[in-house]
Amino acid sequence: MVLTVVGDSLTSPHAAEFRDRADQAILASAGLVEVDCSQLEFIDSSGVGAFLHLIRLLPEHRRPVRLTGVGKKVLANLELMCVHRIFEVEPRK
Fold first, then answer.
1. Do the beta carbons of residue 18 and residue 10 sit within 8 Å?
2. What are the C-alpha distances in Å from 15 to residues 20, 43, 56, 93?
3. Which CATH number fits domain 2-91: 3.30.750.24, 1.10.3110.10, 1.20.120.80, 3.30.2290.10?
4. What is the torsion angle, in degrees rounded to the nearest 10, for the CA atoms of residue 35, residue 83, residue 22 and residue 43?
5. Does the predicted model carry a pTM greater than 0.85?
6. What confidence tens digit (pLDDT) does each residue in 45-55 have?
């Protein structure tokens, strides 16, 4: 299942919407979860919290969550918040 981050930032107002969409999508599927971050240019702690929410929803056999198309700035923020190792991260090409 692929979830797409819509827009170029995942901050407090957008994080709640992303969590809601993720909840529905995860309940409707049974496979691994991939988050398409190719449009994402900025993420704050609320956005990271939304990604961590995905992990809490998933049983162990559906982990790790894969983040694809991750830009340098987003990756730097994930590393700064020490959460980059929790996800399978595929940098943007």
1. yes
2. 9, 9, 15, 25
3. 3.30.750.24
4. -80
5. yes
6. 999 999 999 99
